[in-house]
Write a structure and sequence with these properties.
This protein is of the alpha+beta class. Strands 5, 6, 7, 8, 9, 10, 11 and 17 form an 8-stranded mixed β-sheet that branches. Strands 1, 4, 12, 13 and 14 form a 5-stranded mixed β-sheet that branches. Strands 2-3 form a two-stranded antiparallel sheet. Strand 13 and strand 14 form a beta hairpin. About 6% of the residues have low confidence.
Length: 329
C-alpha cells in the first residue's frame, strides 16, 4: 500500500480560496447572468485614494435645440451652447460574517461542519448581495416617489396583467424597448403562467436549461423581491442596470480568516471563521448622499432610505429600471 500525503488541495488555504472565489458569489447570481449587473474596472483605481464613496462625474446629453441653417454673412456668428455635467456618487461597502465550530461538534457529528460552511460561502454571499441590491432599489424608488413624482413606478392596485409590463415600459416613452429583464415574485409569475404568457427558450442552441421569457424579456422569479402588506414590487431592467464591483479585501486578515480558541469549550477547542467582502454597488443616474448612515458603511436597511439617495439623471429615460407594484392573492 503506497503512502498517502495530505496535499494543498485537501486543505483550505485562505489566499488560494480568495483567488478562485473572489467574484464567484456575484457571477453566480441570476441577475448577473441576465446582464442586469456589470462591473467597471476603473472603479478600483478611483478607490485607491480611500474614502467611503466614489465620485463619478459625467456629462449630460446634448440639448434638443433645432439645428440652424448657415449663411454667407461674415458678421453673423452662431450662438454656442454648453454641455451640462452631473455628479454621480457610489457607496463603498465592506461586509463581514462569522461562524464558529466547537471541535466537539465535529467529533459527535462524524463530519466537519467547517468544510460545509466554506462550501456554502457562494450561496450565502449570493443571498447577502441580493439583499443589498434590493435595499438599493427600494431606496432609489423611495426617493423617486418623494422627490420625482414617482415617474419610475407603475402602481396598479390590482393583480398583474399582461398590459402592466407594457405600461411600465412606456414610463420611459420612446425608450420603452430598451428593457431586457423582468424580476418578479412567484405569485406574479403564477398569474402570468396561468394566462399562458410565458415562453421557454433554451439557454443555447445546443439545448440545456430552459429560460423563461415574457414579451421578449428574460424573467427571473424570486420571492425575495419587496413585499409589503400584500403589495408586490417587480422590476424591469435595461442591460447593465446596476454596477457591482467586487474589490480586494485590504484588511490584515483578508477575505477569509481563521482563528483558534483552544481554551473554549472548557479546553475542547473552537475554530472561528470570518469571511469578508469589499464591493461598490451603484445604480446609474443616482447619487449616494449618505444622509442617514450610522456607521462607516451603509446597512441594507439604510440603503433602502430615501434620505440617502438623489436622482442625478434629468429624465426618467436615462434611468436603468422601473418598478411594477401589484397586489396578489
Amino acid at each position: 500500500m503506497s503512502d498517502a500525503y495530505t496535499k494543498i488541495t485537501d486543505s483550505i488555504i485562505p489566499s488560494v480560496y480568495a483567488q478562485y472565489s473572489f467574484e464567484e458569489h456575484v457571477q453566480s447570481l441570476e441577475l448577473f447572468q441576465a446582464g442586469v449587473l456589470y462591473s467597471d474596472p476603473a472603479i478600483s483605481t478611483k478607490l485607491s485614494m480611500g474614502g467611503r464613496s466614489v465620485d463619478m462625474p459625467g456629462w449630460k446629453d446634448l440639448g434638443s435645440d433645432a439645428s440652424e441653417p448657415v449663411n454667407d454673412d461674415e458678421t453673423d456668428s452662431i450662438e454656442t451652447k454648453k454641455i451640462g455635467s452631473r455628479r454621480e456618487v457610489a457607496a463603498r461597502n465592506i461586509r463581514a460574517q462569522a461562524w464558529a465550530v466547537p471541535d466537539l461538534t465535529s467529533v459527535l457529528a462524524g463530519d466537519d461542519p467547517l468544510k460545509t460552511i466554506i462550501r456554502r460561502q457562494t450561496d450565502y454571499w449570493q443571498r447577502a448581495h441580493k439583499k443589498t441590491i434590493i435595499g438599493m432599489l427600494k431606496g432609489v424608488l423611495a426617493d423617486n416617489i418623494a422627490n420625482d413624482s414617482g415617474d419610475m413606478v407603475l402602481d396598479t392596485n390590482a393583480s398583474i396583467v399582461d398590459t402592466d409590463v407594457i405600461d411600465a415600459a412606456y414610463l420611459m416613452g420612446d425608450r420603452a424597448d430598451a428593457f431586457k429583464t423582468l424580476w418578479v415574485h412567484s405569485k406574479q409569475m403564477k398569474v402570468l403562467k396561468k394566462a399562458d404568457l410565458i415562453d421557454y427558450v433554451p439557454s443555447s442552441q445546443q439545448g440545456g436549461m430552459m429560460i423563461p421569457y415574457y414579451m421578449g424579456l428574460r424573467v427571473i422569479t424570486d420571492d425575495d423581491i419587496p413585499v409589503s402588506t400584500g403589495e408586490y414590487t417587480a422590476f424591469m431592467f435595461k442591460p447593465n442596470a446596476i454596477m457591482w464591483n467586487e474589490l480586494p479585501v485590504a484588511t490584515e486578515g483578508g477575505p477569509l480568516e481563521f482563528d483558534r480558541k483552544p481554551r473554549l469549550g472548557h479546553g475542547g477547542g473552537l475554530t472561528e471563521m470570518v469571511a469578508r467582502r469589499h464591493f461598490v454597488p451603484h445604480i446609474p443616474g443616482t447619487r449616494w448622499l449618505d444622509g442617514s448612515t450610522a456607521g462607516e458603511f451603509a446597512t441594507d436597511a439604510e440603503f433602502a432610505l430615501a434620505a440617502n439617495w438623489d436622482r442625478t439623471a434629468t429624465s426618467v429615460k436615462s434611468m436603468t429600471f422601473v418598478a411594477i407594484k401589484t397586489t396578489e392573492a
